[in-house]
Write a structure and sequence with these properties.
Length: about 475
């Protein structure tokens, strides 16, 4: 009689503070659905650009704004994610972002012209920009410092997988259905995520100390980033005056934001002083360059496979798949070692693998065999998985819970900016090299990958400043 209560007490005892239990994994799965939906859609639509050009009788220069408008909306939305979560609560903000993304998806599917589609992509991008940062902050709050690393190591692989599987999904959709399904495919994913989140994700209350919205910072930061990306995009298209004006105005607005953030006594949208505090500055540099490397390569390789080798979108997607498989394998490795190995060791090793996997692409002029490309992509995937999760764990495990939304917003902003600015910069380099190389398209792509290697070396410089010791709860 006396043993039963003891057994019941033992059975009812909570799991250890560092144990990743089923409930936490369920919450992680639900929140990652939002990130998966947003990142997958961006690459699905990129495969359908040619089809959209035909459907709307638009030029390539005009229809490319379907992708650019979405990207600029994401860049504009990310900085506000921290303030919105503080003001309205994390789960409420996340659900609103899912709703905005689904609304944008429906409107895109109903678009009647290229202009209307571009406008509706902005609505979709505003929702998509809020999802990763808000979801990560919610998950880090629920997990606590002792479990953040292992959970984030699983979640962080999603943005690495989405650009790989996007071309496959997009190619499959366009081979069997009409173009609106490029957007309607989001509806079941988003609906399931929203229903499950209401049932299983705990509500994160608004911040006790509510701060006024940093209007001046918002006017300078988000538009400044958007104008800078626009200017770089115009450089790639050879439009000199818009390019010069865009880059100059964007840099001036960002400099103005930095000066405002350093002077203001209120809470800025993104605090520039945060980047001067170790290890946040080094972590920020690593994520910035990781975004440039990941999204830049995802931009370059499908173009090379299709224009340099004459492959279809489906075939190009198949060749990119080993990078996703490598990222999945790397995620398993990081999950098992993130609490045992110093963050700097994991990140530096990951950068070294990315460098090793990038070197063969600098030799595209010699047309390396498919086996070399497949092996290089798998190695790159493992390396990429070894950077994102440890870097985020460093930051999330060292700040107070009430600061999580703004820190998550800052980290995701850097990754997004790295991806968008890095891709735009690589597009400019590629245009230059194509003009210089003439008919030797493969060699032009090989030249451009030397810049990707340069990004990796810059990331390595930041990684050497990460903590030597492993994260403690």
């Amino acid at each position: 009689m006396t043993s039963a209560p003891g057994r019941r007490a033992t059975e009812a005892a909570p799991p250890p503070a560092d144990r990743v239990d089923g409930q936490l994994l369920r919450i992680a799965f639900i929140l990652v659905l939002g990130t998966f939906m947003a990142t997958l859609d961006a690459t699905i639509v990129s495969v359908g650009i040619d089809r959209l050009t035909e459907e709307f009788d638009a030029s390539v220069a005009d229809i490319q704004w379907v992708s650019t408008a979405y990207l600029l909306a994401v860049v504009a939305a990310v900085p506000a994610s921290g303030w919105l979560a503080d003001r309205f609560g994390g789960r409420r903000t996340w659900l609103a972002a899912v709703g905005a993304f689904l609304l944008g998806s429906i409107l895109c599917a109903l678009a009647w012209s290229a202009t209307s589609l571009i406008v509706f992509r902005v609505v979709q991008g505003l929702g998509g920009g809020l999802l990763p940062a808000t979801g990560q902050a919610l998950l880090a709050r629920v997990a606590g410092r002792n479990r953040t690393g292992r959970v984030i190591s699983v979640v962080a692989v999603v943005p690495l997988l989405s650009p790989v599987f996007g071309p496959l999904v997009g190619g499959a959709i366009l081979s069997t259905a009409s173009w609106p399904w490029l957007f309607l495919v989001n509806l079941p994913i988003g609906a399931v995520a929203a229903v499950l989140a209401r049932r299983h994700v705990p509500a994160a209350p608004p911040a006790e100390r509510r701060t006024a919205f940093d209007l001046r910072g918002a006017v300078l930061l988000s538009p400044g980033l958007a104008v800078l990306v626009y200017g770089l995009t115009e450089v790639a298209h050879g439009r000199d005056l818009p390019a010069v004006l865009g880059v100059t105005a964007g840099l001036a607005m960002l400099a103005g934001f930095a000066a405002h953030g350093l002077r203001t006594r209120a809470t800025p949208l993104v605090d520039p002083r945060l980047f001067t505090r170790p290890p946040f500055g080094a972590a920020a540099l690593a994520l910035l360059v990781l975004g440039a490397s990941v999204f830049g390569t995802t931009f370059l390789l499908p173009l090379y496979f299709q224009s340099g080798r004459g492959l279809s979108a489906w075939e190009a997607g198949l060749l990119l798949a080993p990078q996703g498989l490598g990222a999945a394998a790397g995620s398993v490795l990081v999950n098992r070692t993130i609490d045992k190995v110093a963050p700097r060791t994991l990140v530096v090793a990951g950068i070294a693998l990315i460098v090793a996997g990038t070197v063969p692409f600098t030799l595209l002029g010699h047309e390396p065999p498919d086996a070399v490309i497949i092996a290089a992509l798998a190695v790159r995937g493992i390396g990429m998985a070894m950077i994102g999760a440890p870097v985020m764990n460093i930051v999330y495990s060292r700040i107070e819970p009430e600061q999580l939304p703004r820190a998550a917003g800052a980290l995701n902003l850097l990754n997004t900016v790295g991806g968008s600015v890095g891709t735009a910069a690589l597009a400019v380099v590629l245009e230059n090299r194509l003009a210089a190389r003439g008919p030797d398209v493969s060699a032009a792509f090989g030249d451009t990958f030397w810049w990707v290697l340069g990004f990796c070396l810059l990331a390595a410089a930041g990684a050497t400043r990460l903590p030597r010791t492993r994260t403690k709860g």
